[in-house]
Amino acid sequence: MTLKKTRVSIAVILSALITFYFLDFASLLPSGFGFLAEIQFIPDLLSGSLLVVLVLLLLTLLLGRVYCSIICPLGIFQDLISWISKRFNHKKKYSFSNEKKILRYSVLAAVLIAFFAGGTILLSLLDPYSAFGRMITNVFRPVYMAGNNLLAGIFNHFNNFTFYTVDITILSLFSFIIGLLTFIIIGLLAYKYGRTYCNTICPVGSILGFVSRFSLLKVRINEETCNNCGLCTMKCKASCIDSKNKKVDYSRCIDCFNCVDVCKKKAISYRFHRKKEVTASAPATPDNSKRTFLSVIAATAMIAPTKLYAQGMAKINKNTAYEKKHPLTPPGSESTEHFLHHCTACHLCVAKCPSHILKPAFTEYGLGGIMQPRMDFKDGYCNYDCTLCSQICPNDAIKILTKEEKHRIQVGKVQYIKTNCIVYTDETSCGACSEHCPTQAIKMVPYKNELTIPSVNPDICVGCGGCEYVCPVRPYRAIYVEGNPVHLKAQKFKEAEKEDIQLDNFGF
Amino acid sequence: MKRRDFLKAAAITGIASTIKLSDGIDLMAQNVSKKATGCDLVAVMGGEPAVMFIKAIAEFGGMGKFVKKGYKVTIKPNIGWDRTPELAGNTNPELISEIIRQCLRAGAKEVTVFDHTCDDWIKCYKNSGIEASAKAAGAKVMPANEESYYREISLNRAKILKKAKVHTAILDSDVWINVPVLKNHGGAKMTISMKNHMGIVWDRGFFHRNDLQQCIADICTISKPAVLNVVDAYRVVKSNGPQGRSAADVATPKALFVSTDIVAVDTAATKFFNQITTMPLESVTHIKKGADLHLGTMNIDSLRVKKINI
User: Fold this and answer.
1) Using CA atoms, how far apart are residues B227 and B67, in angstroms rounded to an integer?
2) Chain A residues with CB inside 8 Å of B187's CB?
3) Which of A163, A450, B52, B194 is a good FRET partner for B310, with 20 to 30 A between their CA atoms?
């Protein structure tokens, strides 16, 4: 097997698996496949998995940027697009370009400065793994689910329930737009110019590119056998081979081995050092800031009317309005600060949350936290015993929890607005909130006649949102959870003594 | 009868049998089986869930009285919560598998089990133990997590809930069996057979918004009522229901109540429960509302009751 074939086989397997890992709402893939997210560069850097970072750096020092050609899912996505472009244009050829050094390192510097100034937004936006995750979660997952529903429809019709229908929702318009833009912009770049993103914008590409200048194994041109035919340059999707001068820009070479494969003279080979090399650059990319700005405006325009409507309805129905002061971050994230500093919005937790409550934020965290997940109880609530997001977060933005630990973490506190409550306004039974409360922080206590009314004990509340999710009052609910910017410890509820009850008659 | 007439009649019957029965005709069909049984309410105590059911159903003359050969049967347990069987949040899985076996033995073509859960349905189906035991007993386990599994019906006798989207497993069955678990309930006071109907509808929020107790009674006026109500009281949630937060909320009185009369069985079960935790029958107002809608009787003494102590 040639080097190229080996690279393609590994890349196809790894990228197919990680893509499916994101899509897989039915948990068909064993949880062990989470390692695919754990070996990504930026998440490891943020989670402090320095051992993995070290391994990746050493790997680059030894083999070059194999990370970019076999591990990075966004890189392989671009290779797929370039491959497709070749199906449409058989004569497609790349040409050598000089390294856009200033652009490349200014982006990296901007990301670093922004990060140390306390904002992960730029890093989140540009980290290839996170960008890929968002693209899959926000754009392709709904498509995958629609496919599932089509299958489910057919199977269920024949009374087979192996497949089941799932609810497809666009979790956040803004993140959907970002995901779609990522797909379109990076896709177009890859379609036309190959690995431009990796070699001009990508912060990981810049870091590894810097290291790979010094790597031991490299793609090297044998100047004696080379006849300057230029075939390697035409096939180089990183545009880094200057065949005229028989030079390769190793800061941009991603070890795809296309050149090795295509050289008729066998003048290019992947081997140890022999000679000194020179460096060189690539075409410019469009400025996205205007687009981002416009999409923010568009998204706001779409959200604002629903809010105005709710406020109007609230006035008419004498329903007390409220606004959450702090967004809720998932259990294990410790505080909003820790969460925002470690999360790069890869949306793996968004894709995996079985209760579908982790949704990309819009402006809840402020502009710096745009796209970062928050707990939203509109369509569900946090399962008391579930710790999945804490197990899978590759960035450790959500730290690993046991079930017992989670039971004591208070991510927010219950707030009860009696004047909105059905039992108070309509004098009919309800109790939906208490029914869903796993700690009985909301207990139904005697009210008028046979009625019972909620009574809350915020100290034992964990902030799961069961009450808020199920409260039937609209537009503003009678009960909701206000986030704790720093997670607190929930008090242990007092357990009654277990008593044995012996009955010897039926009571009628 | 002339041969021609016979053939005509046969052809018409043939065509008629392919037409889906309207709800009205269904109701008649179910009433017939009701009258055919030997008693109205059976209460059993002191055995394992399956054993108690075997004893109870025998008093009714066997499952064959309700399930005919070739029937599509649906069983509706309470699988509302992500709870293990020991915590009694859901119907006992051993009881469910015994009912499935009896239905299949009586000649049922197909037995389907479902519930519209409160917690994440996949977790509920799994951790309740019901999915596994139902499948092992030979039933189909159907999802109920999405609106497309429901179809709208009208409830002509109802006071508030005039229309509801009901799960197709109920609507498309020949008969269905209601198998709740006995629990206290913060809002509705008790959750037994009548309250278990909230798991056959899609929009439960409507109930909570529009007089919960009346809506519970209203949904029970469905023109295809359950042929049997089997109340699992092997383990009961006696406090902090309907979920219960720990094992301290669970009592194990090992009982079972079976009846064709939904009001009577809930009355009996409430009186039984009242011995564990104080719960006056009058406080569970949906039972009275059910009696007012002529769904059954709260006067247990007027019924043929069989009590069995194992």
Assistant:
1) 9
2) 429-432, 434-435, 444, 452
3) B194
Q: Give all domains of chain A, ordered by start, each with its CATH number.
A: 3-271 (no CATH), 322-489 (3.30.70.20)
pLDDT tens digits for A54-96? 999 999 999 999 999 999 999 999 999 999 999 998 888 899 9
* Interchain contact, B238 vs A498, CB within 8 Å: no
For A37-106, strand residue ranges (E) read none
Q: Give CA–CA dist A216/A271, Å, rounded.
A: 8
A89-127 in b/e form (b: 16+ CB < 10 A) is eeeeebebbebbeebbeebbeebeebbeeebbbbbbbbb
Among A residues 380-399, those touching chain B with beta carbons less than 8 Å apart:
380, 383-386
Query: pLDDT for B257-302, tens place per residue?
Result: 999 999 999 999 999 999 999 999 999 999 999 999 999 999 999 9
C-beta atoms of A507 and B187 within 8 A: no
**Span A104-158, pLDDT tens digits:** 999 999 998 888 887 788 999 999 999 999 999 999 999 999 999 999 999 988 8
Report the DSSP pairing between strands B250-251 and B228-237. antiparallel
Question: Looking at CA atoms only, how far is residue B31 from chain A in angstroms?
Answer: 26
- Mind listing the domains of chain B with CATH numbers? 23-309 (3.40.50.11440)
* Chain A contact set for B186 (CB, 8 A): 431, 434-435, 443-444, 452
Residue A261 CA, distance from chain mean position: 35
Interface test with A, best of B120, B261, B274 (most A CBs within 10 A): B120
Check: CB of residue A36 under 8 Å from CB of residue A42.
Answer: no
CA distance B271 to chain A (A): 5
Contacts of A436 (CB under 8 A, 6+ apart): A381, A466, A467, A469, A470, B118, B243
* DSSP conformation class of A335: B
User: Quick one: three-class SS letters along A14-33?
Assistant: HHHHHHHHHHCCCCCCCHHH
- Distance of alpha carbon B118 from alpha carbon B241, whole angstroms: 13
Of all residues in chain A, the one with the smallest CA distance to B140 is A161
Interchain CB distance below 8 Å, A473 and B209? yes
Nearest to A334 by CA among A392, A400, A413, A402: A400
**What tokens does B215 get?**
């809506």
Distance CA A498, CA B251 (A): 8
Of B263, B269, B309, the closest CA to residue B289 belongs to B263
Q: Are B139 and B113 in contact (CB under 8 A)?
A: yes
Residue A196 to residue A290: CA distance in whole angstroms:
20
In whole angstroms, what is the distance from residue A164 CA to residue A153 CA?
A: 8
Residues of chain B found within 8 Å of residue A439, distances taken between Cβ atoms: 245
Q: Is the distance from CB of B67 to CB of B106 less than 8 angstroms?
A: yes
Is A169 part of the contact surface with chain B (CB cutoff 8 Å)? no
| Record: contact A355-B120, CB cut-off 8 A | yes
Length of chain B: 310
- Contact of A166 with chain B, judged by CB distance below 8 Å, is answered with yes
- Cβ distance B145 to A167 less than 8 Å, yes or no, reads yes
| Residue A169 dihedral angles phi and psi, to the nearest 5° | -135, 145
| Radius of gyration over every alpha carbon of chain A, rounded to an integer in angstroms | 27
ipTM of the complex: 0.84
In chain A, residues with a C-beta closer than 8 Å to the C-beta of B120 are 354-355, 380, 383
Q: Name chain B contacts of A166, Cβ cutoff 8 Å.
A: 145-146
Which amino acid does the sequence have at A359? Answer: K
CA dihedral A423, A429, A435, A439 (to 10 degrees): 50
Instruction: Reduce the DSSP state of residue A436 to 3 states and report it.
Output: helix
